[in-house]
Every structure is written in C-alpha cells, then in structure tokens.
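Q: For a teaching handout, I want to show students what a protein-ligand complex looks like in token form. Below are the inputs, and the small molecule is copper (II) ion. Please produce the holo structure.
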Amino acid sequence: MNTLQKRSTGYAVLGFVVAALMLAIPLSAQGQQESGHAGHGDQQAAAGNSEVEVFTPDADGVVEIEFSNRGFQYTPAAVQVPKGATVRIVYTSSGRHDWRLDGYGVGTAVLGNNQTETVEFTADTAGEFEFYCSVANHRAQGMAGRFIVAE
Ligand SMILES: [Cu+2]
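A: Here is the structure, written as tokens, with copper (II) ion included.
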C-alpha cells in the first residue's frame, strides 16, 4: 500500500514536469519566430543594409527571382544565388524603370508601368555585383541593390 502511494506521487511529479515542458516549448518556439520575423521589415534604408535573400535552384538548376519596385526601392534589395545556377530575373516595373546588372552584362529594356521583362543568364562568376536602374538619376537616388553569387 505504502509503495503504491509513493509510486503514484512519483507519477504526479513526472506529470507536472512534462506539463511544464509542454508549456515551455511552444513559448520558446514562438519567441524565435518573432525575433526572426523582426529582421524582415519592409522599412529598409540603403540597399547596403538590406537583409540578403538567399535563393536555391530548383530541380532544373534554375533560380527564378521576381523583382519589383516601389519608387526607387527594389524588392528584393539584396539577393544571393549559388555559382553555376541559371538565373531567371522577372522584373515588373512600377513606373518607368529598368533592371540592369552590368557585372553580367545583362538587363531589361526600360519598361513602362506594370510591364514585365525576363532576363536569363548563368551565374558563372562568384562575387558581389550591383543591379540598378539606368533611367535618369534613379541609381543616384538609391535605385540599386546587391546581387551576390556565392562560391
Ligand atoms: Cu528607375
């Protein structure tokens, strides 16, 4: 009788510990999610300070990146692809702009509002390059971003 009582007390303590763990785990998971999310703000200043979006190729080795802009700010503002990937840039312009990447000698034509153009190339040179808009003084106004090809 005594032994049985001791045993059930033991289970009760164990049950409490398990319950406490189950409460603690979702809380810490949520905390991580929130702090991770905080880095993805839309309010990003200079392109140089923007968080880099890392892209991985699909089964065919293609990385497709859709670019857009709001005013003189491209989205995404900083991207990374692995060396050797086939990169497909799909740029949709808001206003009259283009998307150029001189480091690879590629770019879209100057597009009108809501026009889309696709540019494809092989990212065969590692390094960090700048993409930008060549219309008027847009580049000087900050219409530029970072294109990183990782080794
Ligand atoms: Cu522009």
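A: Two things your students might notice: The radius of gyration is 25 Å. Residues 97, 133, 135, 138, 143 surround copper (II) ion (CB under 6 Å).
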